[in-house]
Amino acid sequence: MSYIIKLEGGIPQVVADERFVIRTIDAVEVTRIERAILPFSHFQTLEGDEAAKVRAVWISPDDDFEPLVPRLLGLELIAVDFPVFRDGRGYSVATLLRSRYGWRGELRAIGDVLRDQLNYMRRCGFDAFAVRADKDIHDAIKSFGHYSVRYQGAVDDPVPLFRRRGDRS
């Protein structure tokens, strides 16, 4: 059994993961496709009944997902892959999905997801995090308590601090 961190009412909690990520399409079991998180590259080739069975996809930083946003909005979950810690393109993907396209479903970070990234990922709109398997998920969840005040506006709170404090002139 694997676990993820999920924001429940804004509070991070460790929960059992009901889904599994398919990295290579050869591994897909048709009977379990409803619980699978399929690669976007495969999802975009599906049509009809096959496409209707898909509930979740993952997007890589190189995927041009924007032409298929109307199809993506009908899913339950979109995951964004971080192939390596230093690749920040997933933050932009998350921000686009939440801000420009109005995604309201689960937005999960997968791949090389580490404790140091979690608070920033939340600011970009992620609400679920699959921490790298070799890291302690209970240690990682502590990172959400590191900052009590955020100056900049972001997806999770678009109003910057100076606007929240009111006019002091």
Describe this structure as you would to a colleague.
An eight-stranded mixed β-sheet has the order 2-1-8-7-6-5-4-3. The longest helix is centred in the middle third of the chain and has 12 residues, at 89-100. The radius of gyration is 17 Å and the shape is globular. Strand 6 (77-82), helix 4 and strand 7 (106-111) form a beta-alpha-beta unit. The protein has a single domain (3-164), classed as TIM Barrel. The protein has seven helices and eight strands; from the N terminus they run ββββααβαβαβαβαα. With 169 residues, the protein is of the alpha/beta class.
Short description:
The protein has 7 helices and 8 strands. The protein has 169 residues and is of the alpha/beta class.
Characteristics:
TIM Barrel; 21% strand; 24% helix; alpha/beta
Write the layout of secondary structure elements.
Layout: E1 3-8, E2 11-16, E3 20-21, E4 36-39, H1 40-43, H2 48-53, E5 56-59, H3 69-72, E6 77-82, H4 89-100, E7 106-111, H5 118-123, E8 128-129, H6 137-140, H7 161-164
Parallel strand pairs: 3-4, 4-5, 5-6, 6-7, 7-8
Antiparallel strand pairs: 1-2, 1-8
Count of helical segments?
A: 7
For the record, the count of structural domains works out to 1
What's the story with the biggest beta sheet? Answer: 8 strands, mixed
Average pLDDT confidence is 89
Task: Write the H/E string, N to C.
Answer: EEEEHHEHEHEHEHH
Kindly provide the name of the CATH class: Alpha Beta
Distance between the termini: 56 Å
Structure summary, number of beta strands: 8
- Structural class by sheet pairing and helices: alpha/beta
User: Uncertain regions: pLDDT < 50 for 5+ in a row?
Assistant: none
Percentage of residues in DSSP E strands: 15-25%
Give me the CATH architecture, please: Alpha-Beta Barrel
Q: In which order are the strands of the major sheet placed?
A: 2-1-8-7-6-5-4-3
CATH topology: TIM Barrel
Percent helix range: 10-25%
The gyration radius over C-alpha positions equals: 17 Å
Shape: globular
